[in-house]
Amino acid sequence: MCGIIGFIGERQAQPILLDCLAKLEYRGYDSCGIALAGNSLKVYKDAVRVDKLAKTMPLLSETVGIGHTRWATHGEPSQVNAHPHCDCGGRIAVVHNGIVTNYQSLRQKLTAEGHNIVSETDTEVLAHLIEKYYKGNLEEAVKAALRDVEGSYAIIALMAGESKLVAARKDSPLIMGIGDRENFVASDVPAILDYTKRVVYLEDGDIGIVTKEGVRIRRDGREVTREEHKILWNAEQAQKGAYEHFMIKEIHEQPKVIRVTVAEYMANTESVFDLTVTSGHLDTMFILACGSSYHAALAGKYIIEELAGISARSEIASEFNYSSFIPARTRAIAITQSGETADTLRAIKRLEEAGCRVVVITNVVGSTASRIADRTVYIRAGPEISVAATKSFIAQLMALYWLALSYSKVDIRRLDNLIKGLRQLPGKVQQVLDNEDTIAELAGRLSVYDNVFSIGRGVNFPIALEGALKLKEVSYIHAEGYAAGELKHGPFALLSNRTPVVAIVAQDNTREAMLTNLKEIKSRGAPAIVLAEEGDEAVEELADSIIAIPSVDAIFSPVINVVALQLLAYYAAKHRGCPIDFPRNLAKSVTVE
Ligand code: G6P
User: Fold this and answer.
1) pLDDT above 70 coverage of the chain, percent
2) Most CB atoms closer than 10 Å: which of 176, 242, 355, 406?
3) Which of 580, 590, 593 for a ligand 1 pocket mutation test, highest count of atoms within 8 Å of Cβ?
């Protein structure tokens, strides 16, 4: 949720930390701060964005420091609650991502022992605990402090007079980056891509010791080695380039993402989805995820059932975690762009504990999900920076199509057509993107409304949900995604000329019912914005506005429709002057349950 960074080297740490923090802001951006260590500790922090903090700081020459960009959980965004947090002596600083669940009792105990805790955060107790246990060795003090801590954490500790960073993690991501006589710790790869592509992933229970000469890992009192990974993403992929926002850049990358992801799966047909890892007779395929990834999972249910003839059950990971019954002989797929969403990770662990083997679909190599899965299938979306997911959603759909096709029960002619259809998708998506100006103009008209419904049926029902989510996230319009058949079971009471309905009319067995819905909507005076194939006369008669969609096999229509809805949300947000890449209160990676 929060972004953390540590740097140690021969260069000035301050500009590097600020630069890395700016790249981490997508993980949280309500406050930020840095601490630099020389003979004393210097801490600068506030409830502002990184660029603003940078302007308030003098130039500092220290070559070691840590930084943090926050997504508040305990305590409102304020200067005192911003990280880094320090001990009483002001010699130890800590940045933290995660939640210390027993912080109240630790706080009471430390206060009784004379520690002066000034913030409302759970993190500050860590700095005081390290101070309490410090007997001349920072690494040992961090280890001792963490023994008292319950909950999840990725932390970096820094101490005045010590030329090293000490890092540790539990259920929260943390990597070490290896440079040339300079090294890094970060919560995420994009933060350090400009400086190095060599990374080592820390495991739960590891203590990472980072000096300018190198990185070491200690565990259970012993030195351990971990494989070094080379990151294939490049720094440009994590930059906006000529685009105004990451979201629109990433929307435009989608034809390429489809091409790259599908090409990779086609080249490795046999091995991509080796579901034999989920051995045994198959009753049901579980597909678990959160947020936009859940909408991909829900679309996956329709896709897998139709193409592979396998019964599928999509569940929101957080809710799945409350179900007490996990059927035996279950195959499961977990979908997570970041590979770090806490609820999804918990669901994976529960399934595995119940004897079920799990295939993870993720975008991030080396992510926690990929490391705990029985098998990992990567989508090739490249770094996704915009908080609102777009290209990762499309790539997840590609993975699900490929999975379904790998287990396809359709006849060979349809299979050929489907593969042909998959290959044509980048061009079809491009056609939607070429219609950007028209969609932008329509978004301008939509942007004046406060409430919108978004409806679809069948495989486009999840797309209606995703379209509504995009509107909510970036334009702050209250948008409700609905299964069109449910409209008359309540939402009709809200229809008026002030509540536009965005309707997806696909060329499949849902079409007639969608046309009936449109008539019902029209007779209640609600403006209807309809996504439909070009030249659909029946729709033209009923719609107030039409977004023309290129013709594709109906099973692929979610891909085309969602791109149009992403553009609609983006431009509605732009018309409303919203901070599109940094929506209020949201974060890209939700590492707390
Ligand atoms: C957050 C992000 C969403 C994302 C969801 C699940 O809410 O803002 O864009 O869909 O988390 O994330 P995951 O990384 O598990 O796909």
Assistant:
1) 97
2) 176
3) 590
3-state secondary structure (DSSP) of residue 53: helix
Q: Is 387 in the pocket of ligand 1 (CB under 6 A)?
A: yes
Q: Which of 2, 32, 86, 290 is catalytic?
A: 2
What separation in Å is there between the alpha carbon of 122 and the centre of ligand 1? 24
Written as six digits, the tokens of 163 are 């030329």
Angle between helices 461-470 and 291-308 (to 10 degrees): 160
pLDDT tens-digit profile of 53-109? 999 999 999 999 999 998 888 888 899 999 999 998 899 999 999 889 999 999 999
pLDDT band at 338 (very low <50, low <70, confident <90, very high): very high
CA torsion through residues 572, 574, 580, 584, sign: negative
Confidence (pLDDT) at 277: 43
55 is annotated as an active-site residue: no
Three-state DSSP class for residue 228: strand
CA angle (512 as vertex; 508, 514 as ends), nearest 5: 90
- Cα separation, 43 vs 46, whole angstroms: 10
* Residue whose entry in the numeric block shows the structure tokens 């914005």: 529
Element (H, E) at 218: strand 215-219
Report the separation in Å between the CA atom of 344 and the middle of ligand 1, taken as the mean of its atom positions: 10
CA distances to 3, 14, 173, 460, 500 from 21, in Å: 7, 11, 16, 38, 40
Mutation to probe ligand 1, out of 337, 345, 390 (largest number of atoms < 8 A from CB) = 337
Starting at the edge strand found earlier in the chain, the sheet holding 330-336 runs 312-316, 284-289, 330-336, 358-362, 375-378
The verdict on the CB of residue 291 being under 6 Å from ligand 1 is: yes
For residues 191-208, b (16+ Cβ closer than 10 Å) or e, as one string?
A: bbbbbbbbbbbbbbebbb
> Is the distance from the beta carbon of residue 368 to the nearest atom of ligand 1 less than 6 Å?
no
φ/ψ bin of 291: left (φ > 0), alpha (ψ from -120 to 50), beta (otherwise):
left
pTM: 0.88
Contact 64, 165 (CB under 8 A): yes
Q: Report the alpha-carbon distance of residue 549 to residue 532 in Å, rounded.
A: 5
402 Cβ neighbours under 8 A, 6+ residues apart: 262, 265, 272, 273
Q: Tell whether ligand 1 has an atom less than 6 A from the beta carbon of residue 363.
A: no
The DSSP secondary-structure symbol of 236 reads G
Query: Nearest Cα to 22, choosing from 59, 63, 53, 56?
Result: 53
How many Å lie between the centroid of ligand 1 and the Cα of residue 340? 9
